[in-house]
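Let us practice reading a record.
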Amino acid sequence: MKDPMLDGPGKAGGPLEAGGPLQAMSPGVVDFLFRQLVNGEPPEDVHWRREGTLLVEQPPGPELARRLSETDLDALTPTELFDYVRAAQRLGAWADKLREAAVERYCSGRSL
């Protein structure tokens, strides 16, 4: 059976076809992964983990909101993008709880 990935870029089933694996990655991610491959390093950035709290460990709140807003999504690997989405979901749930508490307080007639 012929492997469609071996047909080359732009051919039916090739890596650059819409939805192909290379189409899903930004040029920055492809460049990073290539440099990792050339250097014999793992396909993810492990150096930044030593610099502070991981995004997946950052508690929801203003600091997480700041970090998410300053993140360049095009520079993230697929694993990092997944972590980003999960962190954004945690932040959204936290913000929803704040909103619900404020609405409850407003509707109860208690002063703010």
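A brief commentary: Confidence is low (pLDDT under 50) at residues 1-16.
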